[in-house]
Amino acid sequence: MPSLRSAWKCMFAPKLIQIYGSSTERLYEPQILEQWGNQVISSLCMLWKLGLYTSPMWGIVLYNNNYFESLGLTTITKLVAGVGVILIVSFCIRGFSRAHNSTYLHFLEVLHKAQVNVEEHKHDLMKYDFEFSAWPVEYDLCKAKSSSSKVRIVRKITNQSTTEYLVSLPFRIIAYFAIHSFGIRLIYPGSIKLLQMALESSLQQGRTRLIDFYGGQRYKLKSADGNTIDTMVLDRRNTHPHGDTLVICCEGNAGFYEIGTMITPTEAGYSALGWNHPGFGGSTGMPYPAQEEAAMDVVMQFAINKLGFKLENIVLFGWSIGGYSVSWATVAYPEIKGAVIDATFDDILPLALNQMPKWWEPIVKLAIREYVDLDISKFLSKFPGPLLLIRRTKDEVICTKAGDLSSNRGNNLLLKILRNRYPCIFDEHQLLIINEYFAVTGSKQGTFKYLRLIYIYNYRIAERILEQHHVDDTVCISLLQSYISEYSKSYPLKIGEDLSATEKTQLALFLAKKYMKDFKATHCVSLPGDMFALPWDVNVESDFVFT
User: Fold this and answer.
1) 338: which residues sit within 8 A by CB, 6+ positions away?
2) 539 in the Ramachandran plot: left (φ > 0), alpha (ψ -120 to 50) or beta?
3) Which of 269, 406, 411, 438 has the greatest number of beta carbons closer than 10 A?
């Protein structure tokens, strides 16, 4: 007979989801009373979240129809009290049922030991999948002796006068409430708890695959701002040819590491680290830029100081809006091996304006610039290391015009980076040719005959542009190597000051081809492992060039 103390502990203990073992993993099977209690509690939580999200709609309807007056305060109080009684009874039933379940009690014992000393009991803890809020913190940036946080880097300075500020104050108030209510959730829909509930089964299956099939290790990190970050590590050092290189993966606005980009570098033979944005999965907080930067910072410090990877062996990989986290980290940690940016944009503002009504424009501009200023190009233009952009040729998300490859915001991102790195090469004439090249480059691969013909046609046009301007890779590499050998590899490179317009055009096309790789796919298709490669860079000591 379990004691009341044991039942009390079980009552508020985390939900156990799955048990891993040496054989086939299995879902935890709660007893009937625990199952009933869990169902009632989760249903009430879902109704509360659904009611909270839809409260502006049903609140107005009820108020307009005088339901609040007709029901009266007494009736509403009784209704709330009734729900409270159901909730308390459900917790009690769940606690007593768990206290009679030896499997759950053993899990609770392992969890308590791990909360005292997680390193000693990590192996036993990894046998269980449970509510991540109860997982012990394994790396706290504020307590780590060897850490050097970079979250204070590059903050925005406002140059508005007092009069301008006061005039814009009403718009600022509207923008603040818009972003901090529905706005941030429109930008990062993965932070919506109802969506996470709907994806719960898929996320659990994804974790199972990463842990059982790939040998992943789950960690809980605590950032400088107090958020805890749900992290997964696939350490392949000494087991795979590229295992000494760690690829840190940053997901999209509705992406989770469980079902996201981690598989891509893993299939390519690299070690991989995935993490969930603040407010996603087991991570706490909300994905505002400051919290994103703090989360990325603790992930980087964890990889360096806890896992033992050197900065020169770390590659950052960002998909879609995850490119912002990568771009910030490239400035905070410029010594990294390189960055791969897949299906992302230069600045979120043009995309936001493209989706919103025209009359919202002043508020959208203010809201984005003040609270969610995801200007990826601002950071990436300062990065001095190797960089590769992957563009989706059928991307329906970051194109401002449907089906128009020239409107892909990845083009704008690359141009801003190249103009900053090689300012003397990109004159107006070169920009016109590069834009023409961007409009037709594409993969030769295709699923349907008609589409295949289109992409072969576009590819041949792109090749024709390169041939028309006599772009010779060997000559272009030689020019770059000669300049770097004589001067330095510090950006911006002044190469091009003494070159002819023809040579500038050749170098511009060569650089565009090397910095960007096309993938014939829509925005949400997973990038295949064979498409993942280290960024191109010039090796001045030999003729070998990374491609």
Assistant:
1) 315, 316, 385, 386, 387, 388, 534, 535, 537
2) beta
3) 411
pLDDT in tens, 457-500: 455 666 778 888 888 999 999 999 999 999 888 899 999 888 99
Closest CA to 354 of 298, 404, 422, 296: 404
| Structure-token match 């729900």, residue found | 83
The DSSP secondary structure of 442-472, one letter per residue, reads --S--SSHHHHHHHHHHHHHHHHHHHHTT--
Q: How many residues does the chain have?
A: 547
Q: Fill in the amino acid letter for 203.
A: L
- Check: CB of residue 234 under 8 Å from CB of residue 258: no
Give the ranges where 100-178 is alpha helix by DSSP (H).
102-116, 118-125, 162-167, 169-178
Q: Model confidence over 4-62: pLDDT tens digits?
A: 777 788 888 999 999 987 555 577 888 888 888 888 888 888 777 777 666 666 666 66
Closest of 377, 341, 347, 345 to residue 364, by C-alpha: 347
List Cβ<8 Å contacts ≥24 apart for 406-409.
406/435, 406/438, 406/439, 408/438, 409/344, 409/345, 409/346, 409/347, 409/350, 409/351
Say which residues have a Cβ less than 8 Å from residue 34's Cβ, sequence separation at least 6.
93, 94, 97, 98, 101, 104
Could you tell me which of 283, 279, 277 has the C-alpha nearest to residue 328?
277
- For the CA atoms of 48, 50, 51, 54, what is the dihedral angle to 10 degrees? 160
Kindly state the percentage of the chain with pLDDT values over 90.
58
- In this structure, of 62-76, 90-104, 327-341, the range with the lowest mean pLDDT score is 62-76
User: d(Cα 461, Cα 456) in Å, to the nearest integer?
Assistant: 9
Q: Amino acid letter at 100?
A: H
Q: Token match 């005959």: residue? A: 449
Give dist(CA 512, CA 490) in Å, integer: 19
Structure token pair of residue 389: 């952009």
H helices of 30-101, in order, are 32-64, 67-99
Element at 379 (helix H, strand E): helix 376-380
pLDDT single digits (tens) 171-198:
888 889 889 988 999 999 999 988 998 9
CA distance 320 to 522: 12
CB-CB contact of 11 with 94 (8 Å): yes
Kindly give, in sequence order, each residue whose CB lies less than 8 Å from that of residue 161, ignoring residues fewer than 6 positions away.
none
CA pair distance 168, 323, nearest whole angstrom:
31
Query: Is pLDDT larger for residue 317 or for residue 160?
Result: 317
